[in-house]
Structures are given as structure tokens and as C-alpha cells.
UniProtKB/TrEMBL annotation:
GO terms for molecular function: amino acid binding; ornithine carbamoyltransferase activity. Coiled coil: none annotated. Keywords: Transferase. Residues 7-148 form the Aspartate/ornithine carbamoyltransferase carbamoyl-P binding domain. It catalyses: carbamoyl phosphate + L-ornithine = L-citrulline + phosphate + H(+). Belongs to the aspartate/ornithine carbamoyltransferase superfamily. OTCase family. Residues 154-305 form the Aspartate/ornithine carbamoyltransferase Asp/Orn-binding domain. This is ornithine carbamoyltransferase. It comes from Chloropicon primus. One of its GO terms (biological process) is citrulline biosynthetic process. PANTHER family: ORNITHINE CARBAMOYLTRANSFERASE, MITOCHONDRIAL, ORNITHINE TRANSCARBAMYLASE, MITOCHONDRIAL. The lineage of its organism: Eukaryota, Viridiplantae, Chlorophyta, Chloropicophyceae, Chloropicales. It comes from the Eukaryota.
């Protein structure tokens, strides 16, 4: 694993609640400098990062590459066909080579075990840019967005409507480290991983509910959150899933049921007309674009923490 003072970021609760609060505070501080046009903070000067992708991306690729550059570093984008991790070359060999060039690695992969293997064999920190299991950078950006838009993250009620997927696993993992109210409302057969639910419940910090009735679950929510019904790697199940998720579309009626101040969030990309209507995406209460912007600021703070800067 990474040498002393260096940390991987593979799951949110790899870090303690206090560390996460500090990372979120740092994100706000570094964000306000960047937004004010101040480019004097260059902690990554002379540092480099490889970014390994086996899946598509807009936000993750551009926000990591731009954020690392804004803080003085150089990021190298490796598209799915460039190194063909695990195919052209064993994952553990990729790890052992890249960590001799780079100060930090970021990876977006299918199998979560492949990410764990990459981290096990890397002498520099590895940051999770999404796997089939989770997406911790997204949920840190989301917590930052709730601090800005709802006044706090802790204590708020977030209702996730849709598939019990990688996004839900990261919501459950943050619930094990910081206290809030999390409801995942999903159809039978699309529940999140039961061990991850138990792990979050056993931590005893947050209220965690798996529910089936969206119109009931969203009442009093500070945030309604949705994601695609068919994730990357599941697109051939799209039709079957569309049938299973009838009644789970976030529309004006669902937003009205939740309350006048309820915010709408979505990790993006969104399929308008499926999991969310165009009307909700474009509404006053939709905060999906500030949320997307915060990917960069949350990740900058994550990388600062990984590198001990
Ligand atoms: N939300 C998110 O991770 O977007 P990309 O797939 O475009 O990186
Ligand atoms: N659940 C989605 C998130 C995309 C950012 C997927 O894995 O495709």
C-alpha cells in the first residue's frame, strides 16, 4: 500500500467522520480561492497523476484533470483502449509500473475487486473514480453541495429514488461515518447490497431505511436524488429495467409531495423522460449543475488529503 502519510480513497468510510469533515471544509476553502481567481495555491507542482478509465466519463475525467492542473499538477488520461488494464497487462503490474512514474492514481473500473487489487499493489494513493460497487467522489461532492445549498449535510433527509446501485452503496458508506437520514426507495429485486446496508446500520450513526413506496418515502425530504435505471454495463437490461421502475420517475407530482423547499439532485448523466422529467431537471429546485461543479472541488480536497498536502 501507499507509504506513510499517503492514503487511498476507495470507500468513503475508509476515512473517519472527522477526516471527512476536514476534507469538506478544505474543499470549501480551496474552492473559494479558485472561484476568486487566485491561482497561488500550487501544492501539486511537480506532481503527476495517471487516470485509468475502462468506462465512459465526462465529469470524472474533466474534473480530475482540470482540478489537478489548477493546483499545479499534471494529469495523464488513459482511455479504455490505451492500456487495457487486466487484458493487455495484469492489474497488479499496471499498479507497480504507474506508481513509479506518478504520485497518485485515479481509476474508473468495472469490477471493484480490480480497484482493490490496483490499490494493494500501488505504492502511491489510489482514488476511486467509480466502480460497479461504488462512487465515493460523487457522494463527497454531493455532501459538499448539501452544505452549500441546504445549510448542512449532517441531519438532513435524503431520499434516493431508483436502482439500489453504486451510488446507493456510497450513500450507505457515508451514513456509516456522518449522521443523516437516508432512505433508498427501490423496487423489489433492485435493492442495494445487503452487507453494505447492514454495515451502515451497524455503525449506528444514521437512520437508514429501504422503502418501496416513492410517494410515501419522499415526504419531508430535504433532497430527492436519482440516477439512471440502467448503469454502465447494464444497458442491455434497459427495457426490462424501464418496466421494473414504473412509478419511480421523479416528476413534478413527486417533488410537490416532498415539499416546496425540497432540492433535486442527480449525479448525471440523466436520461430525461426516464428516471426524471425535463421539468424537474429545469426547475428552480434542481441543483444538479452546482452539484456537478463540486466534483472538482471535492476531489481536489480528497487528493490533498491523500497526498498529505
Ligand atoms: N457523475 C459522473 O461520474 O459522471 P461521468 O460518468 O460523466 O464521469
Ligand atoms: N450508476 C451510474 C452512475 C454514473 C455516474 C453508472 O454506474 O453508470
Amino acid at each position: 500500500g501507499p507509504s506513510r502519510g499517503h492514503k487511498h480513497f476507495l470507500h468513503i468510510d475508509d476515512w473517519s467522520g472527522d477526516e471527512l469533515r476536514e476534507v469538506l471544509r478544505r474543499a470549501q476553502e480551496v474552492k473559494s480561492n479558485i472561484k476568486a481567481g487566485d491561482r497561488s495555491f500550487q501544492p501539486f507542482k511537480g506532481k503527476s497523476m495517471s487516470m485509468i478509465f475502462t468506462k465512459q466519463s465526462m465529469r470524472t475525467r474533466v474534473s480530475f484533470e482540470t482540478g489537478f492542473h489548477l493546483l499545479g499538477g499534471h494529469a495523464v488520461y488513459l482511455a479504455p483502449d490505451d492500456i487495457s488494464i487486466g487484458k493487455r497487462e495484469a492489474t497488479k503490474d499496471v499498479a507497480r509500473v504507474l506508481c513509479r512514474y506518478n504520485d497518485i492514481l485515479m481509476a474508473r473500473l468495472y469490477g471493484h475487486d480490480d480497484l482493490i487489487e490496483l490499490a494493494e499493489h500501488s505504492a502511491v494513493p489510489v482514488v476511486n473514480g467509480l466502480t460497479d460497487y461504488n462512487h465515493p467522489c460523487q457522494i463527497m461532492a454531493d455532501a459538499l453541495t448539501m452544505i452549500e445549498e441546504c445549510g448542512s449535510f449532517e441531519g438532513k433527509k435524503l431520499v434516493y429514488v431508483g436502482d439500489g446501485n453504486n451510488m446507493v452503496h456510497s450513500w450507505l458508506r457515508i451514513a456509516a461515518a456522518l449522521p443523516f437520514e437516508f432512505v433508498c426507495v427501490c423496487p423489489e429485486g433492485y435493492d442495494p447490497d445487503p452487507e453494505t446496508v447492514k454495515h451502515a446500520q451497524d455503525a449506528g450513526l444514521s437512520s437508514i431505511t429501504i422503502a418501496r413506496d416513492p410517494m410515501e418515502a419522499v415526504k419531508g425530504a430535504d433532497v430527492i436524488y436519482s440516477d439512471v435505471w440502467a448503469s454502465m454495463g447494464q444497458k442491455e437490461e434497459a427495457l426490462e429495467r424501464e418496466r421494473a421502475f414504473q412509478g419511480y420517475q421523479v416528476n413534478d407530482a413527486m417533488m410537490a409531495q416532498a415539499g416546496p423547499n425540497t432540492k433535486f439532485m442527480h449525479c448525471l448523466p440523466a436520461e430525461r423522460g426516464r428516471e426524471v422529467t425535463n421539468s424537474v431537471m429545469e426547475s428552480e429546485n434542481s441543483i444538479v449543475f452546482p452539484q456537478a461543479e463540486n466534483r472538482m472541488h471535492a476531489q481536489n480536497a480528497i487528493m490533498l488529503h491523500c497526498l498529505g498536502c
